[in-house]
From TrEMBL:
Annotated Gene Ontology cellular component terms: membrane
Pfam families according to UniProt: CRAL_TRIO
Organism, as annotated: Parnassius mnemosyne (clouded apollo)
Name of protein: CRAL-TRIO domain-containing protein
Coiled coil: none
TM ranges: none
Superkingdom of the organism of origin: Eukaryota
């Protein structure tokens, strides 16, 4: 079987278009990179060295604002310490993860939309998915996120998420843990350089409005306005062209199962790398000022406190 492509990188005109979207100046980007490397080296509580490709991905996700990039990087390493449930034991062959992978799919698509965005599709295959496994679902999502930090070497103009709600049941709703969801959404919004452009919920039932209601308080204002709920796939095509969608969603880019299998294989290939990365995180005892108060950071009172960055 021919290997399925995973993250095709932009080139030609699309590459140029994405530079504009990312505020990326090819002549000055390496000066920006040098400034971030220098800043990182001076932070006693953060790793001294990190690879340039991932730093560049952070700069792109922050539109080359150095201050924003420092804040995101600090949060990224902070979260790696604060959330061991997401960032440790990241071996995809572990029984609890292998079990989940047989019951849900969530891969990024290989190609980009005409405006340079990456589409990720997530769906459950089993109505008996247990909400207690949410931490592991989020762990897998961020494992994919970390691979993308490394492999999106040319940068993309943003992300589109398509969430298939067909297996969501009232039982799930009753057991959803707002605190787990909040932690995950703080990670995604504050610690990863993701430019979230659109979230599309497909195969939506009336129940979905309730789920969105639980999640919305933890979303930034601009993201709240980017959630679209579809009861019919035809309205999805107004936003996402068929040539970046898999056949399961009326598209032409291969089957979601094959794309997902390719990602599972990729995550297996990264097993050693994930293990090596576990120690690369913030050391709160060395943070200037006072260590991060996790209760404040994840406070379920709904407020999110920014880290202060010197």
């Amino acid at each position: 079987m021919a290997s399925v492509a995973t993250l095709v990188q932009p080139s030609g005109e699309l590459w140029k278009k994405i530079r504009v979207e990312l505020n990326e100046d090819v002549n000055t980007r390496y000066q920006d990179l040098a400034a971030i490397k220098e800043w990182l080296r001076k932070q006693p509580h953060l790793p001294d060295e990190w690879d340039e490709d991932r730093m560049m991905t952070f700069l792109r996700g922050c539109s080359f604002s150095l201050e924003k990039c420092k804040r995101k990087l600090d949060m990224y390493f902070t979260m790696r310490t604060a959330c061991p449930e997401f960032f440790t034991n990241r071996d995809i062959r572990r029984p609890e993860l292998a079990d989940l992978l047989a019951r849900l799919q969530g891969p990024p698509m290989a190609g980009l939309t005409p405006n340079g965005r990456r589409v990720t599709i997530a769906r459950g295959l089993d109505k008996n998915l247990d909400t207690n496994q949410l931490n592991d679902v989020f762990k897998i999502a961020m494992m994919m996120g970390d691979v993308r930090l490394k492999e999106e070497v040319e940068g993309v103009a943003g992300d589109i998420y398509i969430l298939d709600a067909s297996v969501v049941s009232p039982t799930h709703l009753a057991k959803l843990s707002p605190s787990v969801i909040k932690k995950f959404l703080i990670c995604v919004q504050e610690a990863y350089p993701v430019k979230l452009k659109e979230v599309h919920v497909v195969n939506a039932s009336p129940l979905v409005d309730k789920v969105v209601g639980i999640i919305k308080p933890f979303l930034k204002e601009k993201i709240k306005n980017r959630i679209f709920i579809h009861t019919d796939l035809n309205t999805l095509y107004e936003y996402v062209p068929k040539d970046v969608l898999p056949i399961e969603y009326g598209g032409t880019c291969g089957s979601l199962k094959e794309i997902n299998d390719a990602w599972v294989k990729k995550l297996e290939d990264y097993t050693e790398w994930f293990k090596e990365q576990e120690s690369i995180k913030a050391n709160e005892s060395l943070r200037p000022g006072k260590p991060t108060n996790y209760d404040e950071l994840f406070g379920i009172d709904g407020s999110f406190r920014q880290l202060s960055i010197d």
